[in-house]
Amino acid sequence: MINWEAVGMTALPVFGGLASGFLFCRNRENKEWNNKLVRLRCNPPEWIFGPVWTTLYGMMGYASYRILSLRETSDVSMALTAYGVQLALNMSWTPVFFTLHKIKTAGVIATCVCGSIIWTIKEFQPLDLTASRLLYPYIAWCTFATFLNWSIAYLNSDNKALKND
Length: 165
What we know:
7 helices, 0% strand, elongated, Ferritin, mainly alpha
């Protein structure tokens, strides 16, 4: 028998991330702007971000399902609040960076995402150790992504190719 609640909770952030990517990253203007950015050599190729984020969104969605499934026996409200905050912050990063071209503001958001993931892990851990551990790759990737965001802000502070944007 298919557990539709598990499927839905897992799929929700995956589809949210995919929709955000297609809405805010795929248009020609945003791609052109993105191609003008100076990046560090350690910046992964663009094709890697889709599969990585899809995997991470699936893991965080399944982790949230595991916590939600405890609602009959435990108070999960703070854990789900932390989860909702980090997910909302995460989803806000893409339009701020790619559509508004606010690199430093996106860096602040990315830093807040990392803090909110740590909060979520802290709230998940006493309820379900597996759910909290499912978020470890997420915090690792977001920490790296935050570093990349701030490096892009620094490296492009005088990027003349972006001045017309």
